[in-house]
Specification:
The complex is a heterodimer of chains A (330) and B (456). With 330 residues, chain A is α/β, with parallel strands linked by helices. Helix content of chain A is 36%, strand content 19%. Chain B has 3 domains: 150 residues, OB fold (Dihydrolipoamide Acetyltransferase, E2P); 49 residues, E3-binding domain (Dihydrolipoamide Transferase, Irregular), CATH 4.10.320; 217 residues, 2-Layer Sandwich (Chloramphenicol Acetyltransferase), CATH 3.30.559. The longest helix of chain B is centred in the last third of the chain and has 16 residues. Classes of the chains: A alpha/beta (330), B alpha+beta (456). At the A-B interface, loops of A face helix 4 of B.
Chain lengths: 330, 456
């Protein structure tokens, strides 16, 4: 184990996979000479050369399409979105080509592409650059969607995503690039896609949260423990496919659930998880599943309004108290 | 709005109505959250009722001596300026003070209680009539009182479920599942969740609160009717009698009882007890204390008897909480001696006596009346030879103990005189079988016949 940042863990994953498999290459805006807008591809051009670290024009639809074509003929492209909000420009390529070609070709083509980059709210990135983009992708059959919360997960899941024969949407976060954590240095260390993890064990309520929301939920759990409420935190890590067994198993134990997501709540991840819990663990529920979500509004630029739109530790604590029928909720 | 509706609290699982013994606070008096408002007689004990909101006790709707159904409005607390007419008006129509008494018991009290439902004075009149303390800075403001109301535990204050929803019981899925497994009737539970929703904790509380216990015949001697007097009279049920009347069929009908009787030679136990009681500075030990100790120790070896039927499982208890039936004038009550298996004979003697005395004074706390895992009913003091008791659900068994009698016994030399005591265990056949009950009884008998074992 080595302690490194989330950014370094991603860099290490890319480096190891490119050393392991000559078919793996990286493509995107400023990934080469500039070494990545967030420095995830630092040092890669020097090691692997311009044939495998490809700087592209500002043309998401174009280079994503090139990546999909390369994947169809046997390469394993890792396409970087400078921020995932820009993937909207490539949505047709991702949804209509990457996600469907295996199906539409009757299995003749695989599309082993990874599209990665930061997404979700960060610090005052405003309406167009703060979106929780995963919701656009996990709805589409044929795509896998990963949201890694820790350096270890970032490395283990990115390596699994690169080795996966399906298109994988891999959304990081600007707010997590500097988070440090222990990361195994074994080049064969992998975290399988579709496995959730229990971040904190508890007995009274299951909080399902990922990325920055997971860290806020951990803070809320610390506070709530002082009031005698024992919170279990499940981080799904992969949103599609979803590890229902871990989530349902936890809810069967605690009998209550709160789902936290940074994006707007309507038809969001919270709705999906709440529905799954209701279908599979109805008789184990002692309270309706509560959602803590971003407000149904564009992200404001002003810091105070940004905070008002986004789930906070306090909002998570209130929701937990509500499902626990504990007094003092706002 | 800062109106606190004071409702008859549900103070035990079986409680459906309560009687106001007396009001500690008077109309017009300022009260704070936590103040004692009144004393309430329930089926088990006399209990002090607290205020859950602050303000002025504006209206008392149920006078001392009268009964009110659980959840029905009995008083209103509000600031002087609040208009409480609508709240008081609602109380008039709905939730009549329902008593379990026969119709003849309905006293013509309504007539001589004109204060029961007079038109409510307007708030300014009221303020003039009952000069309440002025609103100083310490006086609760409306929002604060509202907060107090919002935060108080709903279990004690939630109004009875309105019949407007067609009698549908609102319960969480988990609460329903647990209730179905444990045989708890959701209709008898007051929900503590939002809108009166019954949640897990409510069902669990109901499970661990068995009502007044089980034994044989009523103890009250029948009145001798005179030839000239009325042919009969209908005696209103006391709260306790009504609880027993409701509770016992719930045991006898669904619980398949079987009975095993054994006779114990009590000669050595009798001698031991006399020796113990001759010691200075030691608590007096009764025969029943010896039996409690023997039963508790034996239950540890026979955990299958210290068990409760749970629908699709049998709950086997690792601790022995011994219910001890205590006869009262108007019925009986079963206080619980907790962790009896872990207590010495002297401790048992002291605690059992204390529980029995406070039971007779009706001074037991609610938690001393629930949670037994096994019970003993002893009618020996009535010179009863033997009898069978009714199991007190959710317990799995109860031991009925008769008197220690001097009887002729066959000895090696011929005929002699010995002390014998019969005991009959009633067992829930869903939990155990005859042989299990018999083996348990055999070991209780062995302990009592070799009573020194009770001291170690």
């Amino acid at each position: 184990m080595a302690v490194m940042t989330y950014r370094e863990a991603l860099n290490q994953a890319l480096r190891e996979e490119m050393r392991r498999d000559p078919d793996v290459f990286v493509m995107g805006e400023e990934v080469g000479l500039y070494e990545g807008a967030y420095k995830v591809t630092q040092g890669l051009l020097k090691e692997f050369g311009p044939k495998r670290i490809v700087d592209t024009p500002i043309a998401e639809s174009g280079f994503t399409g090139v990546g999909i074509g390369a994947a169809m003929v046997g390469l394993r492209p890792v396409v970087e979105m400078m921020t995932f909000n820009f993937a909207l420009l490539a949505l047709d390529q991702i949804v209509n080509s990457a996600a469907k070609l295996n199906y539409m070709s009757g299995g003749q083509f695989n599309v082993p592409i990874v599209i990665r980059g930061p997404g979700g709210p960060a610090h005052q990135l405003a309406a167009q650059h703060s979106q929780s983009m995963e919701v656009y992708f996990y709805h589409v059959p044929g795509l896998k969607v990963v949201r890694p919360s820790t350096p270890m997960d970032a490395k283990g899941l990115l390596k699994s995503a690169i080795r996966d024969d399906n298109p994988v949407i891999f959304i990081e976060s600007e707010t997590l690039y500097n988070v440090k954590g222990e990361v195994p240095e074994d080049p064969d260390f992998l975290i399988p896609l579709g496995e959730a993890v229990v971040r904190r064990e508890g007995t009274d309520v299951t909080v399902i949260a990922y990325m920055g929301m997971m860290y806020r939920a951990m803070e809320a759990a610390e506070e709530l423990a002082k009031d005698g409420i024992s919170v279990e935190i499940v981080d799904p890590r992969t949103l599609q496919p979803m590890d229902k067994d871990t989530i349902i198993g936890s809810v069967r134990k605690t009998h209550r659930a709160v789902v936290v997501e940074a994006g707007a709540g309507f038809a969001g991840m919270g709705s999906e998880i709440a529905a799954e819990i209701t279908e599979d663990a109805f008789d184990d529920l002692d309270a309706p599943v509560e959602r803590v979500t971003g407000a149904q509004a564009p992200m404001p630029y002003a810091r105070n309004l940004e905070r008002a739109k986004t789930p906070t530790k306090e909002k998570i604590m209130d929701a937990v108290r509500k499902v626990c029928y504990a007094n003092g909720g706002r | 709005m800062a109106i606190t509706k004071v409702v008859m609290p549900k103070l035990s699982e079986a409680m459906e109505s309560g009687k106001i013994i007396k009001w500690i606070k008077k109309e017009g008096e300022r009260v704070q959250s936590g103040d004692i408002l009144a004393e309430v007689e329930t089926d088990k004990a006399d209990v002090e009722m607290e205020a859950f909101g602050g303000g002025v006790l504006r209206k008392i709707l149920v006078s001392a001596g009268d009964k009110a159904a659980v959840g029905s409005l009995i008083a209103v607390i509000a600031d002087e300026s609040e208009d409480i007419n609508s709240v008081v008006g609602q109380a008039g129509g709905g939730a009549p003070a329902q008593t379990a008494a026969a119709p003849s018991a309905a006293k013509p009290a309504v007539a001589d209680r004109p204060a029961a439902a007079p038109p409510q004075p307007k708030s300014e009149d009221h303020a003039a009539r009952t000069p309440a303390p002025s609103r100083g800075p310490e006086a609760p403001t409306s929002p604060r009182v509202a907060e107090v109301v919002a935060q108080q535990p709903a279990a004690t204050m939630a109004p009875a479920r309105p019949s407007a929803d067609g009698g549908r019981v609102k319960a969480s899925p988990l609460a329903r599942k647990i209730a179905a497994q444990s045989g708890v009737d959701l209709k008898l539970i007051q929900g503590s969740g939002p809108g009166g929703r019954i949640v897990r904790r409510d069902v669990e509380a109901a499970q661990s609160a068995p009502a007044a216990a089980a034994t044989g015949p009523a103890l009250r001697p029948a009145a001798q009717p005179t030839v000239t007097g009325p042919e009969f009279e209908d005696v209103p049920l006391t709260a306790m009698r009504s609880a027993i009347a409701k509770r016992m069929p719930l045991s006898k009908a669904p619980v398949p009882h079987f009975y095993v009787t054994s006779e114990v030679a009590m000669d050595r136990a009798w001698v031991l007890r006399e020796e113990l009681n001759a010691l200075d500075g030691q608590p007096k030990v009764s025969v029943n204390d010896l039996i409690i100790r023997a039963c508790a120790l034996t239950l540890l070896q026979h955990p299958g008897v210290n068990a409760s039927f749970q629908g699709d499982s049998i709950r086997v208890f690792h601790r022995v909480h011994m219910g001890i039936a205590v006869a009262l004038e108007e019925g009986l009550i079963t206080p619980v001696l907790r962790d009896a298996h872990a207590k010495s004979l002297a401790q048992i003697a002291v605690e059992a006596r204390d529980l029995a005395e406070r039971a007779r004074q009706r001074k037991l706390r609610a938690q001393e009346l629930s949670g037994a895992t096994f019970s003993i009913s002893n009618l020996g003091m009535f010179d009863v030879r033997d009898f069978s008791a009714i199991i007190n659900p959710p317990e799995g068994a109860i031991l009925a103990v008769g008197a220690v009698r001097r009887v002729p016994v066959v000895t090696e030399d011929g005929l002699g005189v010995g002390r014998r005591m019969a005991m009959t265990i009633s067992c829930d056949h869903r939990v155990m079988d005859g042989a299990m009950g018999a083996r348990y009884l055999q070991d209780v008998k062995k302990l009592l016949e070799e009573p020194l074992r009770l001291l170690v």
